[in-house]
Design goal:
The protein has 203 residues and is an all-beta fold. Helix content is 0%, strand content 46%. The chain has no helices and 17 strands. It has a four-stranded mixed β-sheet, with no helix packed on it. A hairpin with a 2-residue loop joins strand 16 and strand 17. It is elongated and about 120 Å long. The N and C termini lie far apart (118 Å).
Length: 203
C-alpha cells in the first residue's frame, strides 16, 4: 500500500460578537449613548467594518467593533438596522446587527450677562450652546441703523456702534426638536466729550 498524506484542515472558527439588545437612541451633536459597545464572545485579531453606512459622524472602531464618535452624530436618522462585519486573520467572517436612530435635543443657549458699550466701540459676542445641534439662529429687539449686525449662521452680534440705545435683545436657536431662546439687555452709551488742551488740540 502506498503511503497517504493526510492534511488536517483548520476547524471553522468564525468570529462571534454582538451589541446589547434594543434600539440605540443617539442625539445630533451629542456623545450621550456613545460608544455603542461591542462584546466579542469568540475569536481574536478581528477587523471590524460597517456593511451599510452609519449616520454621519459615527464610525466603527476597526479593532474592537465599538461604534464611536468624536462629537456625536451630525445628521438626523430614522430607525435603521446597521450590520457590522468582523473578519479574522484567516478570512472567516461573522456579523452582528444594531438598531440606531438619531434625534435632536431642543436647543438650550445662554446669551450671557447684560452688556454695556460706548458709541464707537467694537462689539463681538456669540451665545453659548449648552444643548442641541443648531440649524438656524434669529434675533429680535436689535435696533437697525446702530452699526450692529446679526449672523443667522452663528448667532453672533458684531459691528461698531454708531448710535446710543438701550434694548432687550432676544436670541433664538432652532432645530427639529424646537427653539431655545435667551435675552439680555444691550446698552450703548453716548461717547463722552473730547478733551481739548489750551492750544485747541484734542487730547
Amino acid at each position: 500500500l502506498s503511503n497517504s498524506v493526510i492534511t488536517a484542515l483548520p476547524l471553522a472558527n468564525p468570529p462571534e460578537f454582538g451589541y446589547s439588545a434594543g434600539l440605540k437612541t443617539l442625539y445630533r451633536g451629542s456623545t450621550t449613548g456613545l460608544p455603542i459597545v461591542n462584546t466579542i464572545t469568540r475569536g481574536e485579531n478581528i477587523t471590524f467594518e460597517s456593511v451599510n453606512a452609519l449616520p454621519g459622524g459615527l464610525s466603527v472602531n476597526s479593532g474592537n467593533g465599538n461604534i464611536t464618535s468624536v462629537s456625536g452624530p451630525t445628521n438626523i436618522a430614522s430607525v435603521s438596522i446597521y450590520t457590522i462585519l468582523g473578519t479574522n486573520v484567516v478570512g472567516e467572517k461573522g456579523n452582528a446587527s444594531v438598531s440606531i436612530e438619531v434625534l435632536d435635543l431642543a436647543p438650550i443657549i445662554n446669551s450671557g450677562v447684560d452688556r454695556t458699550f460706548t458709541v464707537g466701540d467694537n462689539v463681538s459676542f456669540t451665545p453659548t450652546v449648552t444643548q442641541g445641534y443648531i440649524d438656524s439662529w434669529s434675533v429680535s429687539g436689535l435696533p437697525s441703523g446702530v452699526g450692529l449686525s446679526f449672523n443667522t449662521l452663528t448667532g453672533a452680534i458684531t459691528g461698531t456702534t454708531t448710535s446710543a440705545f438701550t434694548a432687550t435683545i432676544t436670541i433664538s436657536a432652532t432645530n427639529t426638536a424646537g427653539t431655545g431662546s435667551d435675552s439680555m439687555v444691550l446698552t450703548v452709551n453716548p461717547a463722552g466729550p473730547v478733551a481739548i488742551d489750551n492750544t485747541g488740540t484734542p487730547q
